[in-house]
């Protein structure tokens, strides 16, 4: 699928969710949906930075407050801090607490997100080079070495003005019309990482701020999967050179995946038609469902945009018939 087709599919899917399912629900209205996003976000975003907790360990930590496994305390606190910050970010979806002048993000909120994400782990394992005024929420007083690929973060003396320029760029997203919003949020995401305003935790904070902007614009959050870490880093390096397309595409896929995987199935119920990826399971993936629909084995309809649509009841019926044994003990395919 081309990048342009992906953006159209994202726009069409969100319009369909709005029209047929009443739109993206707020965290207060649909806690279960947002909790699933929250757990997967905390797991994957910290794993990108090297955290080794597996999804089950993250889930038990966040749902039950139990530190299962034999990992270092630092790793549990990294996840807990990120999750605390993500909960605040998600609370901004559809009912944002904007700044005094209605800004999408304020400097106070940038510091707040970093402070929430980093304080738990900082209390037991602060950055070894941090000075007394470089803790969570404080901008760095150190210079940063060039990144892989050659990009050099600005001098510490320029962080304040650079961040104020960044806030202006965030605000401009609402009026930009010359590129898709996913490429606009990609541009502000990479710009934050280029500034690297904190001595530690810029990757996690940058992804939290990316989701803060997405939530306040009415999108589902983007979760960059840990298996896509190298692709994500390559897209960031490409964006360093001014090409925001690959990163915008990755963000768009992440938003679309979350809408189809978590939001649509929870809102649709068993009888409402939804895109096939929303009905996929580990045992029956979207490719298998599409093949069954194309062969006429699974009841489905083709939407105007070419997407196959079915419902949970029809999939359950297909699964039951697929494994029903007929005379002679032969399994029907």
UniProtKB/TrEMBL annotation:
Superkingdom in the source lineage: Bacteria
Gene3D superfamilies xrefs: Fido-like domain
InterPro entries, per database record: Fido, Fido-like_dom_sf, Fido_containing
Domain Fido: 105-265
Name of the molecule in the record: Fic family protein
Species of origin: Cellulomonas wangsupingiae
Lineage, broadest ranks: Bacteria, Bacillati, Actinomycetota, Actinomycetes, Micrococcales
